[in-house]
Amino acid sequence: MSSESLRIVWVYPDLLSTYGDRGNALILASRAQRRGFPVEVLEVRSDQPLPATADIYLIGGGEDGPQALGAQRLIADGGLHRAVAQGSVVFGVCAGYQLLGSSFFAKGTKCAGLELLDLSSDRGPTRAVGELAGDIDPRLGLPPLTGFENHGGRTHLGPEAAPLARVTAGVGNDGATEGAWRGKLLGTYSHGPALARNPALADLLLRWATGVHQLPPLDDTWSDRLRAERRAAVAAAARP
Amino acid sequence: MPLRAKVASSVSRTAAALSRAAGRGDGSVIGGWIGLKIDPDLLAHLAAGRAIALISGTNGKTTTTRLTTAAVGVLGKVATNSFGANMPTGHTSALAKAGSTPYAVLEVDEHYLAQVLESTEPHVVALLNLSRDQLDRAKEVAMMAQLWRAALVKHSDVRVVANADDPMVVWAATPPPNHDHRITPPHVTWFSAGQRWHDDSWVCPECGSTIAREGDQWWCTGCPLRRPEPHWTVEDDGVIDPTGAWHKVKLQLPGKVNLGNAATALAVAAEFGVRPVDAVLKLSSVTSVAGRYAQVERDGRLIRLLLAKNPASWLEAFDMADEAPTLLSINARDPDGLDTSWLFDVDFSPLRGRQVLITGDRAYDLAVRLDVNDVPFQHVRTFAEAVRAAPPGRLEVIANYTAFQDIRAELDRVL
């Protein structure tokens, strides 16, 4: 942690907050507070400079126009690059995931990304809409990923980025893999919001940010039930 | 009416009646569908000769349509699609069923506004608001505003009644003049009905700059787009008309939101020449709208149904609801939208301190949301269990679309 409290920055909620992305900030803050970490959540709009000294940066989903504008402003601002260089955690969802790569397509145009993750995105043949599930990279030691995806992009990973998960339902990056991670940067197509559906993923980000390897367990009754219900729904939909 | 249209109209009415008799809903969709199959121009034929108002927007259109129908009723018979069947099939069915009427007030799904403008050539169009709704399939808000704008440019003769508080609506209602094609923007009457939800209008649709807000006012920090001075406003429990006269509005519908809807209805009716002083009396006759706001007594519980479909309408429902035990029910079936992420766009903290019960297909999504919102709750499996869990007295029920319909069916299709 860079200061007395855990600083979480929600990046550009005015542009990138289409799919309940506030939820990821709320879940993260709540899970940190319940472990006794003082938390500060900063909502930084796209017309404000992005502080480079926070612990966790959350970048949410958005439609094409706001995504392109968000990427432009993040590149011009430079704050996120400085933060990553200092070891901050970044979690990107959907449009916010795509723009961490080298390029993405918005409104039919190829746009420059932030080049923080070794990946690029283009347009797929169909829009991927529906439940998304996958087995997460065993090195991260997390239970299966669950979420809801809604995107027209396909994402291709380079050698420097590892897939977050192997897809068991839905499309994700390309029907085989979903999301990506490297170091303390992680991206996913999953909303739901992702951290509400995957509290263990929220805890991973907290461990990365705090350096605390063993976080005290929390009462996850309701998210456990939600996960079980979604898993059952995906299984039921897959049955012939 | 041409013979083909007459036949189509008659078959449409018969099909709707059969569907109702078979217990398959109110029949307004199937009737219209069959009529339009026989005569694709049936809606235009049925619309011809009537003075028509179209009411569109993300939220409040069913209620505003109902209130406007009551207000315009001062002048004579009004046809309307009062069952919320708000696509061209529903309009066709409603007009066929109503027979000949001098007036029609039609609720229009925002995606179909351009098409219905084309076929009905209305006298006035009311634009209520635009916000996020069913994200897994609806168009993004800015694109919706663009579609409205493009449609209005082609109808510069229509009168527009639009919400001055919603930047997206203001932008949509004021297309630039196109001198090459001699297109002048339509005349706009502005109303202010208040807007609680701002999260879809921080970015200017014209130039991409940030929209600033202070009190009621809003303005773009990068271009001239700003809040126009409204002609109709809400004050205390009444509405101020363009002459500055205040009219007390006695509604049987709850909340400030419905007072705003009443202001809109008065503004639309005024475009037909209805004096607000005459119209306000009619507004108080509206008790419930397709089951919304309906009150039903069951086992000593006075149950009131509120529909909330998207983040903006949840904020409004909290405003309407009494501080009483509250049941929340959430589904994510096709008509609701399949993605429940939006639950995190809603701040449920107004419910703290009330007994909160939750149910529905997606109650667990809601449970996780309420948990992180510090709102204590109890999960119940059925509506009947919810009724038993609440003490006698008022029970507020807030539900999204299909959850609302499920509960309505349990309460025997209350109207």
UniProtKB/TrEMBL annotation, chain A:
> Can you give the residue ranges of the CobB/CobQ-like glutamine amidotransferase domain?
7-198
CDD domains, alphabetized: GATase1_CobQ
Keyword annotations for this protein, in alphabetical order, are: Cell shape, Cell wall biogenesis/degradation, Glutamine amidotransferase, Hydrolase, Ligase, Peptidoglycan synthesis
What's the catalysed reaction?
Answer: beta-D-GlcNAc-(1->4)-Mur2Ac(oyl-L-Ala-gamma-D-Glu-L-Lys-D-Ala-D-Ala)-di-trans,octa-cis-undecaprenyl diphosphate + L-glutamine + ATP + H2O = beta-D-GlcNAc-(1->4)-Mur2Ac(oyl-L-Ala-D-isoglutaminyl-L-Lys-D-Ala-D-Ala)-di-trans,octa-cis-undecaprenyl diphosphate + L-glutamate + ADP + phosphate + H(+); L-glutamine + H2O = L-glutamate + NH4(+)
The family classification in the record reads:
Belongs to the CobB/CobQ family. GatD subfamily.
Q: What exactly does this protein do?
A: The lipid II isoglutaminyl synthase complex catalyzes the formation of alpha-D-isoglutamine in the cell wall lipid II stem peptide. The GatD subunit catalyzes the hydrolysis of glutamine to glutamate and ammonia. The resulting ammonia molecule is channeled to the active site of MurT.
Its name, as the record gives it, is: Lipid II isoglutaminyl synthase (glutamine-hydrolyzing) subunit GatD
Organism per entry: Micromonospora thermarum
What taxonomic classification does the UniProt entry list for its organism? Bacteria, Bacillati, Actinomycetota, Actinomycetes, Micromonosporales
Automatic annotation (TrEMBL), chain B:
Q: Which residues form the Mur ligase central domain?
A: 55-168
Active-site residues are 339
| Occurrences of domain Lipid II isoglutaminyl synthase (glutamine-hydrolyzing) subunit MurT C-terminal (ranges) | 307-403
Q: Which amino acid positions bind Zn(2+), per UniProt? A: 204, 207, 220, 223
Q: What does this protein do?
A: The lipid II isoglutaminyl synthase complex catalyzes the formation of alpha-D-isoglutamine in the cell wall lipid II stem peptide. The MurT subunit catalyzes the ATP-dependent amidation of D-glutamate residue of lipid II, converting it to an isoglutamine residue.
Its family? Belongs to the MurCDEF family. MurT subfamily.
Q: What is this protein called?
A: Lipid II isoglutaminyl synthase (glutamine-hydrolyzing) subunit MurT
Species of the source: Micromonospora thermarum
- What lineage, starting at the top, does this entry show? Bacteria, Bacillati, Actinomycetota, Actinomycetes, Micromonosporales
